[in-house]
Amino acid sequence: MHKIYFDNAATTPVREEVIVKMKEALTNCYGNPSSTHGFGRSAKTEIEQARKTIAKYLNAEASEIIFTSGGTEADNMILRSAVRDLGVQTIITSKIEHHAVLHTSEALQKEFGIRVEFVDTDSFGDIDLKHLEQLLDADDSKKIVSLMHVNNEIGNILDMHKIALLCKAKGAYLHSDTVQSIGHFNWDLQSTPIDFLVASAHKFHGPKGVGFAFIRKNTGIEPLIVGGSQERGYRAGTEPFHNIVGLKEAFVAAYDNLDEEEEYISGLKRYFIEKLKDAIPGVKFNGYSGDMERSTYTLVNVCLPFSEDKSQMILFHMDLKGIACSEGSACQSGANGGSHVLNEILSDEELKMPSIRFSFSKYNTQEEVDYVIEALKEFSLS
Protein backbone atom coordinates (compact mmCIF):
# COMPACT_ATOMS: atom_id res chain seq x y z
CA MET A 1 0.00 0.00 0.00
CA HIS A 2 1.09 3.56 -0.67
CA LYS A 3 2.30 5.57 2.32
CA ILE A 4 1.93 9.27 1.59
CA TYR A 5 2.52 11.91 4.23
CA PHE A 6 0.68 15.19 3.57
CA ASP A 7 0.45 16.32 7.20
CA ASN A 8 3.67 18.31 7.52
CA ALA A 9 1.92 21.20 9.30
CA ALA A 10 1.34 18.78 12.19
CA THR A 11 4.93 17.55 12.24
CA THR A 12 7.69 16.89 9.73
CA PRO A 13 9.95 13.90 9.15
CA VAL A 14 13.39 14.43 10.68
CA ARG A 15 16.23 15.12 8.24
CA GLU A 16 18.79 12.33 8.06
CA GLU A 17 21.66 14.68 8.87
CA VAL A 18 19.78 15.77 12.01
CA ILE A 19 19.48 12.16 13.17
CA VAL A 20 23.21 11.66 12.59
CA LYS A 21 24.11 14.75 14.65
CA MET A 22 21.76 13.77 17.47
CA LYS A 23 23.20 10.24 17.59
CA GLU A 24 26.71 11.69 17.81
CA ALA A 25 25.58 13.97 20.65
CA LEU A 26 23.98 11.11 22.58
CA THR A 27 27.03 8.90 22.07
CA ASN A 28 29.94 11.27 22.58
CA CYS A 29 28.77 14.32 24.52
CA TYR A 30 26.72 13.06 27.45
CA GLY A 31 27.96 15.36 30.19
CA ASN A 32 25.57 17.60 32.11
CA PRO A 33 25.95 21.08 30.59
CA SER A 34 25.99 22.56 34.10
CA SER A 35 28.96 20.45 35.19
CA THR A 36 32.35 22.17 35.34
CA HIS A 37 34.42 19.21 34.10
CA GLY A 38 35.36 18.66 30.48
CA PHE A 39 32.34 16.51 29.65
CA GLY A 40 29.98 19.21 30.90
CA ARG A 41 31.90 22.06 29.29
CA SER A 42 31.75 20.32 25.91
CA ALA A 43 27.98 20.04 26.11
CA LYS A 44 27.62 23.64 27.29
CA THR A 45 29.78 24.87 24.42
CA GLU A 46 27.55 23.11 21.90
CA ILE A 47 24.41 24.62 23.43
CA GLU A 48 25.85 28.13 23.33
CA GLN A 49 27.00 27.62 19.75
CA ALA A 50 23.46 26.58 18.83
CA ARG A 51 22.11 29.71 20.52
CA LYS A 52 24.56 31.96 18.67
CA THR A 53 23.84 30.30 15.33
CA ILE A 54 20.07 30.71 15.63
CA ALA A 55 20.49 34.32 16.71
CA LYS A 56 22.73 35.05 13.73
CA TYR A 57 20.18 33.75 11.22
CA LEU A 58 17.39 35.78 12.86
CA ASN A 59 19.57 38.91 13.29
CA ALA A 60 19.04 38.77 17.04
CA GLU A 61 21.39 38.56 20.03
CA ALA A 62 22.33 35.17 21.47
CA SER A 63 21.04 36.21 24.90
CA GLU A 64 17.57 36.67 23.37
CA ILE A 65 17.23 32.97 22.39
CA ILE A 66 15.87 30.70 25.13
CA PHE A 67 15.48 26.97 24.51
CA THR A 68 12.12 25.45 25.51
CA SER A 69 10.21 22.21 24.98
CA GLY A 70 8.40 23.82 22.03
CA GLY A 71 5.93 26.48 21.02
CA THR A 72 3.23 25.75 23.59
CA GLU A 73 5.54 26.14 26.55
CA ALA A 74 7.06 29.30 25.07
CA ASP A 75 3.62 30.83 24.44
CA ASN A 76 2.62 30.08 28.02
CA MET A 77 5.84 31.47 29.45
CA ILE A 78 5.62 34.74 27.51
CA LEU A 79 1.93 35.49 28.02
CA ARG A 80 1.93 34.47 31.68
CA SER A 81 5.00 36.55 32.45
CA ALA A 82 3.58 39.51 30.52
CA VAL A 83 0.60 39.55 32.88
CA ARG A 84 2.38 38.52 36.07
CA ASP A 85 5.60 40.51 35.68
CA LEU A 86 5.13 43.23 33.05
CA GLY A 87 1.81 44.59 34.29
CA VAL A 88 -0.20 43.66 31.20
CA GLN A 89 -3.91 44.15 31.84
CA THR A 90 -5.26 43.45 28.34
CA ILE A 91 -4.41 40.67 25.88
CA ILE A 92 -5.48 41.42 22.31
CA THR A 93 -5.63 38.33 20.12
CA SER A 94 -7.93 36.70 17.53
CA LYS A 95 -10.34 33.78 17.66
CA ILE A 96 -8.31 31.88 15.05
CA GLU A 97 -5.10 31.64 17.06
CA HIS A 98 -3.59 28.36 18.19
CA HIS A 99 -5.06 27.02 21.43
CA ALA A 100 -1.68 27.50 23.10
CA VAL A 101 -2.49 31.22 22.94
CA LEU A 102 -6.28 31.09 23.32
CA HIS A 103 -6.37 28.72 26.30
CA THR A 104 -3.50 30.52 28.01
CA SER A 105 -5.31 33.83 27.58
CA GLU A 106 -8.52 32.34 29.01
CA ALA A 107 -6.62 30.92 32.00
CA LEU A 108 -4.95 34.27 32.69
CA GLN A 109 -8.31 36.02 32.48
CA LYS A 110 -9.72 33.72 35.16
CA GLU A 111 -6.62 33.84 37.31
CA PHE A 112 -5.75 37.54 37.19
CA GLY A 113 -8.98 39.21 36.05
CA ILE A 114 -7.37 40.71 32.95
CA ARG A 115 -9.34 41.53 29.80
CA VAL A 116 -9.04 39.46 26.64
CA GLU A 117 -10.11 41.31 23.49
CA PHE A 118 -10.54 39.70 20.09
CA VAL A 119 -9.70 41.57 16.92
CA ASP A 120 -12.23 41.11 14.10
CA THR A 121 -11.57 38.69 11.25
CA ASP A 122 -13.40 38.36 7.93
CA SER A 123 -14.63 35.24 6.11
CA PHE A 124 -11.09 34.63 4.81
CA GLY A 125 -9.61 34.82 8.30
CA ASP A 126 -7.99 38.16 7.52
CA ILE A 127 -7.21 40.37 10.53
CA ASP A 128 -8.96 43.77 10.61
CA LEU A 129 -6.05 46.14 11.27
CA LYS A 130 -8.36 49.13 11.80
CA HIS A 131 -10.15 47.24 14.55
CA LEU A 132 -6.78 46.28 16.04
CA GLU A 133 -5.84 49.95 16.18
CA GLN A 134 -9.18 50.76 17.85
CA LEU A 135 -8.55 48.11 20.50
CA LEU A 136 -5.07 49.49 21.12
CA ASP A 137 -6.54 53.00 21.54
CA ALA A 138 -9.54 51.91 23.63
CA ASP A 139 -7.99 52.71 27.04
CA ASP A 140 -4.70 53.27 28.84
CA SER A 141 -4.24 49.72 30.13
CA LYS A 142 -0.95 47.97 29.46
CA LYS A 143 -1.47 45.65 26.48
CA ILE A 144 0.10 42.73 24.69
CA VAL A 145 -0.97 41.75 21.18
CA SER A 146 -0.68 38.06 20.31
CA LEU A 147 -1.21 37.21 16.63
CA MET A 148 0.34 34.38 14.64
CA HIS A 149 2.42 35.08 11.54
CA VAL A 150 1.23 32.01 9.61
CA ASN A 151 -2.06 30.40 10.59
CA ASN A 152 -1.53 26.70 11.22
CA GLU A 153 -4.88 25.65 9.72
CA ILE A 154 -5.59 27.97 6.78
CA GLY A 155 -2.08 29.22 6.07
CA ASN A 156 -2.85 32.95 6.01
CA ILE A 157 0.25 35.15 6.25
CA LEU A 158 0.00 38.22 8.48
CA ASP A 159 2.09 41.34 7.87
CA MET A 160 3.98 41.19 11.15
CA HIS A 161 6.22 44.11 10.26
CA LYS A 162 3.24 46.43 9.90
CA ILE A 163 1.66 45.12 13.12
CA ALA A 164 4.98 45.44 14.98
CA LEU A 165 5.29 49.09 13.99
CA LEU A 166 1.68 49.73 15.04
CA CYS A 167 2.19 48.08 18.45
CA LYS A 168 5.42 49.98 19.01
CA ALA A 169 3.70 53.28 18.17
CA LYS A 170 0.91 52.45 20.63
CA GLY A 171 3.22 51.30 23.44
CA ALA A 172 2.00 47.69 23.37
CA TYR A 173 4.04 44.51 23.51
CA LEU A 174 3.83 42.16 20.52
CA HIS A 175 4.02 38.37 20.73
CA SER A 176 3.66 36.04 17.75
CA ASP A 177 3.25 32.28 17.61
CA THR A 178 5.61 31.71 14.67
CA VAL A 179 5.65 27.92 14.88
CA GLN A 180 4.46 27.57 11.25
CA SER A 181 6.79 30.36 10.13
CA ILE A 182 10.25 29.73 11.59
CA GLY A 183 12.23 27.51 9.22
CA HIS A 184 10.02 28.49 6.27
CA PHE A 185 10.30 32.30 6.17
CA ASN A 186 13.17 34.71 6.74
CA TRP A 187 13.13 36.95 9.80
CA ASP A 188 15.15 40.08 10.58
CA LEU A 189 14.49 40.89 14.21
CA GLN A 190 16.45 44.11 14.07
CA SER A 191 14.17 45.62 11.43
CA THR A 192 10.91 44.12 12.77
CA PRO A 193 10.40 45.38 16.35
CA ILE A 194 8.54 42.34 17.66
CA ASP A 195 9.06 41.59 21.35
CA PHE A 196 8.48 37.84 21.50
CA LEU A 197 8.21 34.93 19.08
CA VAL A 198 8.34 31.14 19.42
CA ALA A 199 9.44 28.12 17.38
CA SER A 200 9.25 24.31 17.44
CA ALA A 201 11.95 22.18 15.81
CA HIS A 202 9.58 19.47 14.66
CA LYS A 203 7.91 21.86 12.23
CA PHE A 204 11.12 22.19 10.19
CA HIS A 205 12.45 18.62 10.13
CA GLY A 206 13.93 18.63 13.62
CA PRO A 207 13.14 16.55 16.71
CA LYS A 208 9.99 16.84 18.80
CA GLY A 209 10.15 18.19 22.32
CA VAL A 210 12.41 21.17 21.69
CA GLY A 211 11.98 24.72 20.45
CA PHE A 212 12.91 28.22 21.45
CA ALA A 213 11.53 31.59 22.42
CA PHE A 214 12.91 34.89 21.22
CA ILE A 215 12.61 37.34 24.12
CA ARG A 216 13.84 40.81 23.28
CA LYS A 217 16.38 42.03 25.81
CA ASN A 218 15.32 44.29 28.67
CA THR A 219 11.62 43.38 28.46
CA GLY A 220 11.57 42.18 32.09
CA ILE A 221 10.21 38.67 31.47
CA GLU A 222 10.61 36.38 34.50
CA PRO A 223 11.00 32.57 34.44
CA LEU A 224 8.03 30.21 34.31
CA ILE A 225 10.05 27.22 35.54
CA VAL A 226 12.36 27.87 38.51
CA GLY A 227 15.00 25.74 40.18
CA GLY A 228 18.38 26.11 38.51
CA SER A 229 20.10 28.84 36.53
CA GLN A 230 19.89 27.15 33.13
CA GLU A 231 18.89 29.18 30.06
CA ARG A 232 20.10 32.40 31.67
CA GLY A 233 17.67 31.82 34.52
CA TYR A 234 14.63 31.82 32.24
CA ARG A 235 14.06 28.05 32.31
CA ALA A 236 15.38 25.79 35.05
CA GLY A 237 16.18 22.16 34.39
CA THR A 238 18.94 20.19 32.69
CA GLU A 239 18.96 21.07 29.01
CA PRO A 240 17.97 18.35 26.51
CA PHE A 241 21.37 18.64 24.85
CA HIS A 242 20.81 16.14 22.02
CA ASN A 243 17.51 17.83 21.10
CA ILE A 244 19.13 21.27 21.03
CA VAL A 245 21.85 19.91 18.73
CA GLY A 246 19.11 18.49 16.49
CA LEU A 247 17.21 21.77 16.53
CA LYS A 248 20.32 23.69 15.47
CA GLU A 249 21.11 21.24 12.66
CA ALA A 250 17.54 21.37 11.32
CA PHE A 251 17.41 25.15 11.65
CA VAL A 252 20.63 25.67 9.70
CA ALA A 253 19.57 23.19 7.01
CA ALA A 254 16.18 24.90 6.69
CA TYR A 255 17.69 28.34 6.14
CA ASP A 256 20.66 27.27 4.04
CA ASN A 257 18.26 25.53 1.64
CA LEU A 258 15.31 27.90 2.05
CA ASP A 259 15.12 29.37 -1.47
CA GLU A 260 15.54 26.03 -3.22
CA GLU A 261 13.06 24.20 -1.00
CA GLU A 262 10.51 27.03 -1.08
CA GLU A 263 10.56 26.97 -4.88
CA TYR A 264 10.11 23.20 -4.95
CA ILE A 265 7.32 23.06 -2.36
CA SER A 266 5.54 26.05 -3.93
CA GLY A 267 5.53 24.13 -7.23
CA LEU A 268 3.92 21.16 -5.50
CA LYS A 269 1.25 23.36 -3.96
CA ARG A 270 0.44 25.00 -7.32
CA TYR A 271 0.28 21.57 -8.95
CA PHE A 272 -2.02 20.28 -6.18
CA ILE A 273 -4.38 23.27 -6.56
CA GLU A 274 -4.58 22.92 -10.35
CA LYS A 275 -5.15 19.16 -10.25
CA LEU A 276 -7.77 19.41 -7.50
CA LYS A 277 -9.75 22.10 -9.34
CA ASP A 278 -9.81 19.91 -12.45
CA ALA A 279 -10.76 16.74 -10.57
CA ILE A 280 -13.42 18.17 -8.24
CA PRO A 281 -15.40 21.13 -9.60
CA GLY A 282 -16.79 23.31 -6.83
CA VAL A 283 -13.89 22.78 -4.45
CA LYS A 284 -13.25 25.80 -2.21
CA PHE A 285 -9.99 26.82 -0.56
CA ASN A 286 -10.48 27.95 3.03
CA GLY A 287 -8.96 31.24 4.09
CA TYR A 288 -6.33 32.40 1.63
CA SER A 289 -4.81 28.94 1.35
CA GLY A 290 -5.46 28.82 -2.40
CA ASP A 291 -3.67 32.15 -2.93
CA MET A 292 0.08 31.71 -3.40
CA GLU A 293 0.80 35.31 -2.39
CA ARG A 294 -1.31 35.56 0.75
CA SER A 295 -0.76 32.12 2.26
CA THR A 296 2.18 29.92 3.15
CA TYR A 297 3.57 27.71 0.40
CA THR A 298 3.46 24.71 2.74
CA LEU A 299 -0.28 23.97 3.02
CA VAL A 300 -3.77 24.16 1.56
CA ASN A 301 -7.06 23.77 3.40
CA VAL A 302 -9.87 22.63 1.12
CA CYS A 303 -13.64 22.53 1.56
CA LEU A 304 -14.90 19.66 -0.57
CA PRO A 305 -18.41 19.76 -2.12
CA PHE A 306 -19.46 16.40 -0.66
CA SER A 307 -22.66 15.51 1.15
CA GLU A 308 -22.86 15.64 4.93
CA ASP A 309 -22.98 11.85 5.28
CA LYS A 310 -19.83 11.51 3.18
CA SER A 311 -18.07 14.02 5.39
CA GLN A 312 -17.93 11.48 8.19
CA MET A 313 -16.01 8.95 6.09
CA ILE A 314 -13.46 10.90 4.07
CA LEU A 315 -10.53 10.78 6.50
CA PHE A 316 -11.18 7.07 7.02
CA HIS A 317 -11.10 6.60 3.24
CA MET A 318 -7.85 8.57 2.92
CA ASP A 319 -6.25 6.59 5.73
CA LEU A 320 -7.22 3.32 4.05
CA LYS A 321 -5.44 4.60 0.96
CA GLY A 322 -2.33 5.23 3.03
CA ILE A 323 -2.68 9.03 2.93
CA ALA A 324 -1.96 11.15 6.02
CA CYS A 325 -3.80 14.49 6.14
CA SER A 326 -5.74 16.47 8.75
CA GLU A 327 -9.25 17.65 9.48
CA GLY A 328 -8.31 20.91 11.15
CA SER A 329 -5.03 20.85 13.08
CA ALA A 330 -3.47 17.80 14.70
CA CYS A 331 -3.95 19.42 18.11
CA GLN A 332 -7.69 19.34 17.44
CA SER A 333 -7.97 15.70 16.38
CA GLY A 334 -10.71 13.93 18.26
CA ALA A 335 -12.03 17.16 19.78
CA ASN A 336 -15.74 17.82 19.70
CA GLY A 337 -17.00 20.73 17.64
CA GLY A 338 -14.36 20.56 14.92
CA SER A 339 -11.88 23.27 14.07
CA HIS A 340 -12.37 26.55 15.96
CA VAL A 341 -10.69 28.33 13.04
CA LEU A 342 -13.10 26.97 10.43
CA ASN A 343 -16.06 27.48 12.78
CA GLU A 344 -15.09 31.15 12.86
CA ILE A 345 -14.79 31.76 9.11
CA LEU A 346 -17.09 29.29 7.30
CA SER A 347 -20.85 29.45 6.80
CA ASP A 348 -23.17 26.86 8.34
CA GLU A 349 -23.56 25.18 4.95
CA GLU A 350 -19.82 25.03 4.40
CA LEU A 351 -19.31 23.53 7.84
CA LYS A 352 -21.49 20.58 6.84
CA MET A 353 -19.00 19.71 4.11
CA PRO A 354 -15.59 18.16 4.84
CA SER A 355 -12.59 20.45 5.10
CA ILE A 356 -9.15 18.88 4.94
CA ARG A 357 -5.68 20.34 5.39
CA PHE A 358 -2.97 19.00 3.12
CA SER A 359 0.55 20.17 3.98
CA PHE A 360 3.74 19.59 2.03
CA SER A 361 7.49 19.23 2.52
CA LYS A 362 10.65 18.76 0.48
CA TYR A 363 10.10 15.00 0.68
CA ASN A 364 6.80 15.03 -1.24
CA THR A 365 6.48 14.51 -5.02
CA GLN A 366 4.12 15.26 -7.90
CA GLU A 367 3.45 11.53 -8.16
CA GLU A 368 2.14 11.60 -4.60
CA VAL A 369 -0.08 14.57 -5.47
CA ASP A 370 -1.50 12.60 -8.41
CA TYR A 371 -2.26 9.65 -6.15
CA VAL A 372 -4.01 11.85 -3.56
CA ILE A 373 -6.09 13.61 -6.21
CA GLU A 374 -7.18 10.26 -7.64
CA ALA A 375 -8.15 9.04 -4.16
CA LEU A 376 -10.29 12.17 -3.65
CA LYS A 377 -11.86 11.79 -7.08
CA GLU A 378 -12.61 8.12 -6.42
CA PHE A 379 -14.28 9.04 -3.12
CA SER A 380 -16.35 11.78 -4.78
CA LEU A 381 -17.74 9.27 -7.30
CA SER A 382 -18.43 6.50 -4.79
Summarize the structure.
This protein is α/β, with parallel strands linked by helices and 382 residues long. It is built from 13 helices and twelve strands.
Structure description:
Strand 3, helix 4 (99-112) and strand 4 form a beta-alpha-beta unit. 41% of the residues lie in helices and 12% in strands. The protein is α/β, with parallel strands linked by helices. It has helices spanning 16-28, 38-58, 71-84, 99-112, 129-137, 160-170, 241-256, 258-279, 308-311, 314-320, 340-345, 348-352, 366-381, and strands at 4-5, 65-68, 90-93, 115-118, 143-146, 173-177, 196-200, 211-215, 284-285, 299-303, 323-324, 355-359. It folds into two domains: 4-12 and 258-381, Aspartate Aminotransferase, domain 1 (Alpha-Beta Complex), CATH 3.90.1150.10; 16-256, Aspartate Aminotransferase, domain 2. Helix 2 packs parallel to helix 7 (241-256), helix 5 packs parallel to helix 6 (160-170) and helix 8 packs parallel to helix 13. The longest helix has 22 residues, at 258-279. A seven-stranded mixed beta sheet has the order 2-8-7-6-5-3-4, with helices on both faces. The chain contains 13 helices and twelve strands.
